[in-house]
Amino acid sequence: MYSKYFTMDFSNILIKWYLQNKRDLPWRKTTNPYLIWLSEIMLQQTRVAQGTPYFFSFSEEFPTVFDLANADEEQVLKLWQGLGYYSRARNLHKTAQYVANELNGIFPPSYTELLKLKGVGEYTAAAIASFSYNEPVPVVDGNVFRVLSRYFDIESDITLPATKKEFTELARQLMPKDDPAIFNQAIMEFGALQCVPKSPNCSVCVFSNSCAALQKKKVDVLPVKTKKVKVTNRFFNYLILEDVLGNTLIQKRTAKGIWHNLYEFPLLEAQEIVDFDFVSKTVQNDIFSNYTILGIEDCSHATVIHKLSHQHLHIQFWKIKINEIIENGVDSVSLETFPFPIVIYNFIKKQEINC
């Protein structure tokens, strides 16, 4: 199918480039499926530079799958704090428990079996299978889509399931069966370092003489991705109570959705950005009517727009002093031990809780 573009040298050139340019990353120094699985889950939708410190923290705190399985979920979420997409952390914990308790700590030894693990999709299963067990199964992520679509001038829409199959089959043809791991590492690394999404330096690319997109001046338009993510705007007002002891009130997000099982201050969600009068009236007449309100202060300098993949959160913080003592109130030292969404944790760390 790709014979008119196909170059037998593609894999050899790619792997040679990789051996000369690869980054020194800790998970590349092991074939331990636990550590590789850990790194792959962390690097989903996360840059390597951001994920690496978390990998070190987790592998030090939980050196084996049994250690992770035996941890408390809040401990896992706290260590994950700031990495985002917290369902990954919850699935990580549940899968560790399954592997430890049901599989005696032994990860499934094949791509097909790995797919059955919670939170493990086709890409992650392929990565573990090839890196740990040298199974010849290709990884296909955004980097791979980009490299192959440009090199072979493929205009298929990468948001379509059929395109995923097309690219997977092409990668399978290109992959040397005797060393699939190095090919998978190489093509991902090439996409991350050389064939980057915007303004790649094609003049120094090892494929500058054979890349179809470069020859046709199509580098900036490939890969084709037509589906646009619909973004929802939400308006959060966090209400920071402070009693006469200096303690505050927090709650756990138990509903499904963003930040499940993380902690937050009492939340007033509105349909739009609200002003002091709206918050004051709602707080005194509804949310905290059982307290004597001494004062309400808008921490306007802490207002932030927190962007998630499908939602933009417009967040305001309001400090509310009360005359009573909060039952089960949390002091400032204990407060930092709970797992919070990073936007709230940053607010606490910067002591903007004091407005």
Instruction: Give the strand content.
Output: 5-15%
Order of helices and strands: HHHHHHHHHHHHEEEEHEEEHH
CATH class of the largest domain: Mainly Alpha
The structural domain count equals: 2
Overall mean pLDDT: 92
Approximate shape: elongated
Number of helices: 15
Residue ranges: pLDDT <50 for 5 or more in a row?
1-5
CATH architecture of the largest domain: Orthogonal Bundle
**Care to count the β-strands?**
7
CATH topology of the largest domain: Endonuclease III, domain 1
Rg calculated over all Cα atoms = 25 Å
Instruction: Name the CATH superfamily assignment of the largest domain.
Output: Hypothetical protein, domain 2
The secondary-structure class comes to alpha+beta
Helix-residue proportion: 40-55%
Terminal CA distance reads 63 Å
Reported for the largest beta sheet, the result is: 5 strands, mixed
Assembly state:
single chain
Function: Adenine glycosylase active on G-A mispairs. MutY also corrects error-prone DNA synthesis past GO lesions which are due to the oxidatively damaged form of guanine: 7,8-dihydro-8-oxoguanine (8-oxo-dGTP).
Cofactor: [4Fe-4S] cluster
Family: Belongs to the Nth/MutY family.
Pfam families: HHH, HhH-GPD, NUDIX_4
Short description:
This protein is α+β, with helices and mostly antiparallel strands. It has helices at residues 10-21, 33-43, 48-61, 65-70, 73-80, 87-102, 111-114, 122-133, 142-152, 161-174, 180-193, 212-215, 276-287, 332-335, 342-349; strands spanning 232-242, 251-252, 263-264, 267-270, 293-298, 304-307, 311-322. Helices cover 42% and strands 12% of the residues.
